[in-house]
Amino acid sequence: MGSSVTSMSSSTILLITICTLSSILSASSATAAAASEEGRTRPFKRVYAFGDSFTDTGNTKNAEGPSGFGHVSNSPYGTTFFNHSTNRYSDGRLVIDFVAEDLSLPYLPPYRHRKPNDTFGVNFAVAGSTAINHLFFVRNNLSLDITPQSIQTQMIWFNRYLESRECEELNCKDFDDTLFWFGEIGVNDYAYTLGSTVSDDTIRKLAISSVSGALQALLEKGAKYLVVQGLPLTGCLTLTMYLAPPDDRDELGCVKSVNNQSNYHNLVLQNKLEEFRKQYPEAVILYADYFNAYRTVMKNPTKYGFKEVFNVCCGSGEPPYSFSVFGTCGTPNATACTNPSEFINWDGVHLTEAMYKVISSMFLQGNFTQPPFNFMLAKKERAG
């Protein structure tokens, strides 16, 4: 051993010294950052999230998501921020991740892969989820067996979590300091019934009823702070445009009929939220206008740094979309762009981290929640 050390060159010793100092400095920096983070005031102690793939931080893996979503456990999912797949349907962070950052909280662990003592909350959102119970689609021969979860499933998971031992230890049934983030859900319901005899009106009524039931269950449990996302500008998603007839386009180039469907759904949802505000005056209920936030970006993409509006960053196929349902992101034939920050669409269905960051900013610092998010924070501060 001694002879090996003696034979080391001066350059080797210098390199080891530099690496050691670097490690010490990195550790010190991390400790300082953690201390700084602890010193910041957290308006909420924890967050519980619900929704579908737009909010899912890892409850699905590989082909468990709906057809056409690719293999989310494979590269290049997650490469922009995490440097590996985290089973998020994007190249990096989602809206819910930016929400956690803004609230000085860690990223929410997925319910299926959480660890004991998840002090700061849990994410129950799962890709492929529907608002309507899965049995409805089974009875109408419209089910995808790989996506049996619905918002009812997530509520069952949530109740199980509340009954768990770790939850009792954390006193997580006290919702005075808890934010409930209800990500968008309902897009899959309309998608699964596309071309069937089931009408949009039927889906809308059942979906709104199901979502309302889940929200009311949370309010009855004592939830005081809720943010509810509406459906996005679905007709601008590449998969939708790829499958839709070219003559069904609005002024933005998006699928008009699909956007009309989403817009009407959102109007009905907002009316229901207004009823809840009257029924539960002690609660602060925000509507996050995903549809118009998305539409605002589409109207002037260069203002937000985007050069590619419809073309996917990750996929395979010919222009104008570079998308194919037979070679979606994460499959062997798919490739990814080198500049995802310039793309709105990541894989044909989901958005890039860059787009999610813009949308989250429009929710948290902009005027795309009603009432504004700052209104909720002010109410929370006054309540203590």
Explained architecture:
It is built from 13 helices and 8 strands. By secondary structure, it is of the alpha/beta class. It has a single domain (46-295, 353-383), classed as Rossmann fold (3-Layer(aba) Sandwich), CATH 3.40.50. The chain has a 6-stranded mixed sheet, sandwiched between helices. The chain has a two-stranded antiparallel sheet with strand order 6-7. Strand 1, helix 3 and strand 2 form a beta-alpha-beta unit. The radius of gyration is 23 Å and the shape is globular. Mean pLDDT is 87; it is low at 1-39.
Shape: globular
Strand order of the largest sheet: 2-1-3-4-5-8
CATH architecture level-2 label: 3-Layer(aba) Sandwich
CATH topology: Rossmann fold
Q: β content, as a range?
A: 5-15%
| Overall domain count | 1
Average per-residue pLDDT, rounded, comes to 87
Distance between the termini: 62 Å
Tell me how many strands there are.
8
Helix residue percentage: 40-55%
Task: Enumerate the spans where pLDDT stays under 50 for 5 or more consecutive residues.
Answer: 1-39
Please give the count of helices.
Answer: 13
Rg, nearest Å: 23 Å
Largest sheet, in brief, is: 6 strands, mixed
Structural class: alpha/beta
Order of helices and strands: HHEHEHHHEHHEHHEHEEHEH
Per CATH, the class reads: Alpha Beta
